[in-house]
Structure prediction request, 116 residues.
Amino acid sequence: QVQLVESGGGLVQAGGSLRLSCAASGSIFSIDVMGWYRQAPGRQRELVATIISGSITNYADSVKGRFTISRLNAKNTVYLQMNSLKPEDTAVYYCNWRRLGYKESWGQGTQVTVSS
Prediction:
């Protein structure tokens, strides 16, 4: 079972930047899907971005052009660079791991708060 630990959240003003990190323990393969999701108060958890094989990425429309997901397989780490942050980006951000045939894993979450 892969375990995930997020870091890098915090409080930032609108227009600012943050970089989230997710460190994975266990064997991570390039074919595994790594992703970031977020959940704001009173709302359902939603996809932010995913990455496969280090280069195939997918983004929610709301973050395209502002967020960048990347992956360093050698360190079993996935990053989320968040630029031009908006108050509506405020949420708990969760790291996710998926591999076909296995139960997916979630991190404990890291809070991102964007003030206006």
Observations:
- The chain has a mean pLDDT of 95.
- The CA atoms of residues 11 and 59 lie 23 Å apart.
- The radius of gyration is 13 Å.
